[in-house]
Amino acid sequence: MKTLGEFIVEKQADFPHATGELTALLSAIKLGAKIIHRDINKAGLLDILGANGVENVQGEQQMKLDLYANEKLKSALKARGIVAGIASEEEDEFVIFEGFEDGRYVVLMDPLDGSSNIDVNVSVGTIFSIYHRVTPVGTPITEEDFMQPGSQQVAAGYVVYGSSTMLVYTTGNGVNAFTYDPSLGVFCLNQERLTYPPTGKMYSINEGYYVHFPIGVKKYIKFCQEEDEATYRPYTSRYIGSLVADFHRNLLKGGIYLYPQTASHPKGKLRLLYECNPMAFLAEQAGGKASDGVNRILDLKPQTIHERCPFYVGNQYMVEDVERFISDNQ
Ligand code: AHG
Ligand code: MN
Ligand code: MN
Ligand code: MN
């Protein structure tokens, strides 16, 4: 058994960006994950279920656990003294960590992903994305530090709070998966250099919005449902409603997650900076692909912190299939 802490120290030399600071940063996320794990598992007993009665900047009903997770992660990251500030789904603007202008990192996060599931005991997650700041150390960070393309990430990962709690991350040197052992309070290495299986049989999409999907996506869904033994079709439809949980299952078993443009979300629902970019970094590191239907997600130049984009992520050949249907049906 190897813990996350031991793994990072052992692999120190391999990680292109993993300075001692990045190790400390990842351990802050580990701490946040342990706290959220503990309180999600007894959310029904604490007064942290249900809506917070506030609408967040996304126009969503903020759940108490959205805010709880946001606060716990924010304080864990700030305490390390190496993060100059954060951007979060649950914060209208980016947050400068006063007094930590010397921090070399900025972190973007979705503190609780899939929060519509939290009150019905279905898997949820946390997503994080880490960059070196681009503004001079010693000065307060600016929005420019958060407007970097996803290709500049130095690390990214997620925590999935499911039947077990797992932390999966990359620093650009493959994807590594750890399972939390609450009895010991440590994350133990599950799998090193996790990659997509060569073929997949699952597609994940909210077919409730089918009527509004681009024609190419409608044709791709029909393609998924056609019989073709050579390509393992028909595929199985699996959709949990938590990006992290759907992504994690598709990474292990092979598949594609799709969130196209819809009537209510003409640019797609998922947020580029703290959902699509980190998951795209992981997908590529696992031999997969992530696209907005036309462009590589990691090449997109962000314009605003909460901007959204269509999102297709999973086995490379499956993403390329849907890109072909989209381009053939412009
Ligand atoms: P969040 O809970 O962080 O706002 O993210 C929810 C996202 C994603 O996790 C999930 O796949 C998708 O929204 C579900 O959207 P629909 O309910 O529209 O299918
Ligand atoms: Mn939300
Ligand atoms: Mn989310
Ligand atoms: Mn969220």
TrEMBL record:
Annotated positions binding Mg(2+) 1: E89, D110, L112
UniProt-listed InterPro entries: FBPase_C_dom (IPR044015), FBPase_class-1 (IPR000146), FBPase_N (IPR033391), FBPtase (IPR028343), Fructose_bisphosphatase_AS (IPR020548)
Residues spanning the membrane: none
GO MF entry, a single one: fructose 1,6-bisphosphate 1-phosphatase activity
Cofactor requirement: Mg(2+)
Residues annotated as domain Fructose-1-6-bisphosphatase class I N-terminal: 2-192
Gene3D superfamilies from the UniProt entry: 3.40.190.80, Fructose-1,6-Bisphosphatase, subunit A, domain 1
Domain (Fructose-1-6-bisphosphatase class 1 C-terminal): residue spans on this chain: 197-325
Catalytic activity of the protein: beta-D-fructose 1,6-bisphosphate + H2O = beta-D-fructose 6-phosphate + phosphate
Compartments where located: Cytoplasm
CDD domains referenced in this protein's UniProt entry, alphabetically: FBPase
Family: Belongs to the FBPase class 1 family.
NCBIfam families: PRK09293.1-1 (NF006778)
Alphabetical list of PANTHER family matching this protein: FRUCTOSE-1,6-BISPHOSPHATASE-RELATED, SEDOHEPTULOSE-1,7-BISPHOSPHATASE, CHLOROPLASTIC
UniProt name for this protein: Fructose-1,6-bisphosphatase class 1
Classification lineage: Bacteria, Pseudomonadati, Pseudomonadota, Gammaproteobacteria, Enterobacterales
